Amino acid sequence: MKRAKVTRRAMCGLLATSSMALASSAPVVGARKRKPALKVLMPIGDATETLDTFYPFFRIAEDGFEVVVAGPEARLYHTVLHEIPPKPAVPWDITEERPGYYLQATVAFRDVNPAEYAGLFVSGGRAPEYLRYNKDLLRITRHFFETNKPVAVVCHGIEIVSAADCIRGRTVTTVAKCALDAEQGGAKYVDQPIVVAGNLVTARTWHDNTPFLKTFMQMLKGV
Questions:
Q1: Which of 64, 181, 220, 223 is the most exposed place for a label (fewest CB within 10 A)?
Q2: What whole-number distance in Å separates Cα of residue 167 and Cα of residue 147?
Q3: pLDDT digits (tens, 9 = 90+) for 130-163
Q4: The model's pTM
């Protein structure tokens, strides 16, 4: 019998789908009773940026939080790689988009009860351009600001919190080409790796992942 081939993208999708199940079922040495993991919501859609999403997906879970991926529907989504090619034959003024890994959303936005979550992580990519029109996602997003829960936003994710009218009067950072989205939402844009404004931490791109996630994890552990 021939064994079916498994692509690298499909394998990463399987790992992402199963990682939290494995983490929640793993025994803890010396522990008699394990408390339920606090949950962090991660909204995505097709064309969510790969490194904006997968790095925090695994990093947040590493510290014992359950990362719940949500989308317009509960289905498999396509992530993408965004990068300005370093040595193209013809120079690029903007990022090139290439296929990334797949990631499974286990719940649809309309079925999310944000009160069940300790924090929100909003990644970037092209997905926020259309996700910001989803009224259920905007409702969810507002909850985290109204209840002062930790929120992390990177790159184009600023388009979602801006559309939800959650950054008015705050100082934020984002990828330079989204500065106008931040300003139109009533925020002050600055170009620096991360900015903390109350319950919100923002970052420019996945290149800032190390200080970005370090700060977000400190905020989560304080809840």
A1: 223
A2: 14
A3: 999 999 999 999 999 999 999 999 999 999 999 9
A4: 0.84
Q: Read off the CATH number of the domain in which 158 is found.
A: 3.40.50.880
Q: Is residue 210 part of a domain?
A: yes
Q: At what angle do helices 50-62 and 209-221 cross, to 10 degrees?
A: 40
Residue 209 belongs to a domain: yes
Instruction: Work out the average pLDDT over 192-198.
Output: 98
Tokens, residue 46: 């097709």
| Beta-strand pair 188-189/171-172 | parallel
- Alpha-carbon dihedral of residues 202, 138, 142, 100, nearest 10 degrees? -30
Residue from 209, 22, 161 nearest 217 by CA: 209
Active site residues: 155
| pLDDT band of 3, cuts 50, 70, 90 | low
